[in-house]
């Protein structure tokens, strides 16, 4: 498996909806970038967010905590959040092991 | 040299104290050991313990015992007393009673043994047995011979008929029980006599009439001698008694009467407790730089053996008193004790008690605290009510002093147990205080924030894992390299009603917050497991506890219950454990949701087969997330391959192998904290060796089964 070497968040914005494509490893070093990125989008008036984890190659507990925080905030602040499941097993395993695959709002079609 | 202050204390111990390294050579030999063994320190240090004090026939077992302990020995081992023969310098043999501690420092094992010459006690015991035998014979003959034999015996002897009525008591027994004549004693029901005392067993639990050896004899049982601690309800006097009962049978073999011997072992018992406390406290004080935690640990050690409560106060830069630690025998009263200690010292106080000790730096002992002393000390009605509520009866206050500088004071209090503190307790407290002074000073020199967080996290790990008959437990905590913030990995194992509970987990977050949350998780699990046996139910309750904490307080954990039905597993969002059997390594269990994170989720109990010889390995994600030279993570597959090669290993060897594999794989130190916990069901053939918990292991370590 070729690992995406660098961590990167691609932002695709279309009016009030935004897709954040996360590439690489979401861990204690990179997790806060996700929160910052989300805060910027919300400030611009985005109310419909999709977090695409398909190209997420690895995630540790800090990464998972960032995802759970997003979910909690979407409910507290009443904006829409969807997630796309990771294709890489290392990242998918963390979601399965913690029950996050069922508890977080993954799109039905590509549930891990 | 860190060990020096500990040795200064041990130099003054009444018991012989010997330390040895993992090659079995003497590294320390105290003056009492010189007396007991007739060998000087200069002659002893550097020589093999086996050649010095172990009788020749036991040397091989001793040596292989050490080897076993070194191979499997993480943490401290035992606190049980064992009796065995030992050699004097002149080659003569004599019986000793021994307690061993083992610990690891810098990858090396060290052992310290406390020994007491018990030849006199043994001789007295066989003399008593002879007397009991004569008594039996005398009872069958005429009663007249009876008093001649036991009347002048200094130990209390009572004889009861088959209805448990006292028919004879010697003078010592009358004195002991507080009666004038046998007639008066015989007319008093045993329950009434017992009601004057609080009667506790060795483990601190209350002893009922049904457990008294003579009563058990009457019920057709064969009772072991029973060690009891009695506290007279009025006077508060505390004694330790060993009760031994023997049957008197008539010609047809029916039970005719019971003879009970009450042996006063108070002094031996106290000496033993003091030695154990001294040893434990010395280790605790040398173990950490976090002095508040350390002082709390020391206070905790003092109860209930030495005192009912123990407090430590320090003096800050302005000379004001700062309460830093308090431990109470009864957790419900801890609050009272803590509340009481919040009262500032009044001017009058400076002349008395704690105030005086902090000012003058001299110890003070109050064997008894009469009511008018409380009246004098009270600053308000509320304060007086508190003073009364804690039932202070006796107190010893010693300064914690470094040269002329007074750093603080340690207070020991005898309260509801009625324990009266004496000179020996005061001396003991002084020794601990002098060691505490050094520990405080050291930690003040090194009180860097990250060091303390790290120490705190480590202090949350069990000091040692329990010994479970038929199983072997091994755990490891591999801290991330210096400079990174400490994580929230933890593991623990403890006894519960009907079995054992084990956990490993990972609390989200870093630093102090993670340490605080880890502490919350561990304490809640331990507390709730007192009344909840299902691991899944425990996880559900922990989930609720975490949801009440600040947002983002989440945690992953495995809970494993081990009892006579086998192993029950519940998973809380944690990587699955791996079971190693003769056919290889495989994951077991089913994933369950993370704790404190999600709404509307549930946990399930799963039975996991752990056949003899199999090992269950639990780990935190620091293992699989470890990064290698090429940027690859260690991952599931490497982990399984490593464990697959560990069939027939001991649990500690598996942990060691995994640790080595990780060290070889990753660049530099651990990037993240990592915890590993392994449990092995001993193969049938080895199980007999490990029965009797650590006692047997300990015995083998120095001399082999006597």
List keywords for this structure.
heterodimer, A: 112 residues, alpha/beta, 5-stranded mixed beta sheet, 28% strand, B: 706 residues, alpha+beta, 6-stranded antiparallel beta sheet, 5-stranded antiparallel beta sheet, 25 helices, globular, disordered C terminus
Structure in words:
The complex is a heterodimer of chains A (112) and B (706). Chain A is α/β, with parallel strands linked by helices and 112 residues long. Chain A is 39% helix and 28% strand. Chain A is built from four helices and five strands. In chain A, strands 1, 2, 3, 4 and 5 form a five-stranded mixed beta sheet that branches. In chain A, helix 1 runs parallel beside helix 2 (61-77). The model of chain A has no long low-confidence stretch (mean pLDDT 87). In chain B, a hairpin with a 5-residue loop joins strand 12 (309-315) and strand 13. Chain B is 38% helix and 26% strand. By secondary structure, chain B is α+β, with helices and mostly antiparallel strands. Mean pLDDT of chain B is 80; it is low at 688-706. Chain A binds chain B through residues 3, 5, 27-28, 58, 60-62, 64-65, 68-69, 72, 90, 93-94, 96-100, 102-103, and chain B through 506, 508, 510, 551-552, 554, 556, 573-576, 591-594, 597-599, 601, 621, 625, 631-633, 635-636, 672.
């Amino acid at each position: 498996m070729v690992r995406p070497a660098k961590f990167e968040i691609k932002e695709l914005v279309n009016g009030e909806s935004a897709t954040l494509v996360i590439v690489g490893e979401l861990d204690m070093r990179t997790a806060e970038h996700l929160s910052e990125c989300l805060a910027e989008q919300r400030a611009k008036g985005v109310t419909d967010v999709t977090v695409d984890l398909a190209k997420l190659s690895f995630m540790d507990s800090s990464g998972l905590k960032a995802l759970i925080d997003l979910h909690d905030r979407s409910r507290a602040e009443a904006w829409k959040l969807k997630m796309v499941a990771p294709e890489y097993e290392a990242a998918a395993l963390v979601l399965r092991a913690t029950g996050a695959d069922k508890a977080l709002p993954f799109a039905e079609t590509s549930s891990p | 040299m860190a060990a020096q202050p500990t040795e200064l204390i041990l130099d003054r111990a009444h018991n012989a104290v010997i330390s040895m390294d993992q090659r079995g050579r003497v590294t320390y030999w105290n003056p009492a050991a010189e007396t007991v063994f007739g060998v000087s320190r200069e002659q002893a240090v550097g020589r093999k313990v086996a050649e010095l004090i172990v009788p020749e026939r036991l040397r091989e077992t001793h040596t292989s015992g050490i080897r076993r302990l070194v191979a499997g020995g993480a943490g401290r081992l035992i606190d049980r007393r064992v009796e065995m023969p030992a050699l004097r310098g002149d080659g003569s043999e004599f019986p000793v009673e021994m307690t061993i501690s083992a610990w690891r420092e810098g990858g090396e094992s060290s052992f310290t043994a406390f020994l007491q010459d018990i030849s006199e006690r043994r001789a007295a015991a066989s003399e008593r047995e002879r007397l009991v035998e004569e008594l039996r014979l005398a009872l069958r003959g005429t009663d007249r011979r009876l008093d001649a034999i036991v009347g002048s015996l200094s130990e209390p002897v009572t004889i009861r008929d088959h209805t448990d009525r006292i028919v004879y008591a010697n003078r010592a027994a009358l004195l002991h029980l507080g009666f004038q004549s046998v007639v008066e004693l015989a007319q008093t029901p045993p329950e009434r006599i017992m009601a004057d005392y609080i009667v506790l067993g060795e483990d601190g639990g209350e002893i009922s009439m049904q457990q008294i050896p003579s009563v058990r004899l009457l019920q057709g049982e064969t009772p072991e001698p029973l060690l009891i601690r009695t506290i007279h309800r009025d006077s508060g006097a505390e004694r330790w008694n060993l009760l031994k009962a023997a049957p008197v049978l008539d010609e047809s073999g029916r039970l005719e009467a019971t003879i009970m011997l009450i042996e006063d072992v108070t002094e031996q018992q106290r000496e033993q407790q003091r030695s154990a406390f001294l040893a434990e406290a010395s280790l605790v004080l040398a173990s950490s730089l976090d002095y508040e935690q350390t002082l709390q640990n020391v206070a905790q050690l003092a109860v209930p053996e030495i005192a009912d409560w123990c407090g430590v106060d320090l003096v800050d830069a302005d000379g004001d008193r700062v309460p830093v630690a308090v431990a109470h025998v009864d957790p419900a009263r801890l609050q009272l004790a803590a509340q009481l200690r919040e009262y500032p010292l009044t001017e009058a106080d400076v002349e008395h008690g704690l105030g005086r000790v902090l000012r003058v730096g001299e110890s003070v002992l109050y064997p008894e605290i009469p009511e008018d002393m409380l009246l004098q000390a009270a600053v308000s009605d509320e304060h007086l009510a508190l003073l009364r509520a804690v039932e202070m009866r006796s107190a010893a206050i010693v300064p914690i002093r470094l040269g002329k500088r007074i750093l603080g004071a340690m207070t020991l209090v005898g309260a509801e147990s009625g324990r009266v503190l004496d000179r020996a307790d005061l001396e003991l407290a002084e020794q601990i205080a002098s060691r505490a002074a050094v520990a405080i000073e050291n930690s003040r020199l090194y009180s860097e924030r990250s060091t303390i967080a790290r120490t705190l996290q480590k202090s949350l790990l069990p000091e040692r894992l329990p010994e479970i008959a038929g199983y072997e437990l091994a755990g490891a905590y591999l801290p991330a390299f210096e400079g990174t913030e400490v994580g929230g990995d933890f593991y623990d194992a403890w006894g519960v009603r009907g079995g054992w509970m084990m956990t490993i987990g990972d609390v989200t977050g870093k630093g102090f917050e993670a340490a605080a949350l880890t502490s919350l998780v561990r304490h809640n699990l331990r507390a709730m497991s007192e009344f909840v046996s299902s691991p899944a139910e425990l996880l559900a309750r922990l989930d609720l506890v975490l949801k009440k904490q600040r947002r983002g307080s989440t945690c992953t954990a495995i809970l494993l219950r081990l009892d006579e039905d086998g192993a029950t597993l519940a998973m809380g969002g944690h990587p699955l454990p791996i079971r190693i059997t003769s056919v290889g390594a495989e994951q077991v269990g089913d994933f369950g949701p993370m704790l404190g994170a999600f709404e509307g989720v549930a946990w399930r109990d799963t039975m996991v087969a752990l056949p003899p010889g199999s090992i269950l390995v639990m780990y935190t994600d620091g293992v699989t997330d470890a990064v290698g030279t090429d940027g690859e993570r260690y991952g599931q597959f490497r982990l399984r391959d490593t464990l697959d090669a560990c069939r027939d290993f001991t649990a500690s060897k598996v942990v060691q192998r995994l640790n080595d594999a990780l060290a070889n794989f990753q660049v530099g130190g651990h990037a993240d904290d990592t915890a590993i916990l392994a449990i092995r069901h001993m193969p049938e053939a080895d199980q007999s060796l490990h029965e009797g918990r650590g006692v047997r292991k300990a015995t083998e370590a120095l001399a082999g089964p006597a």
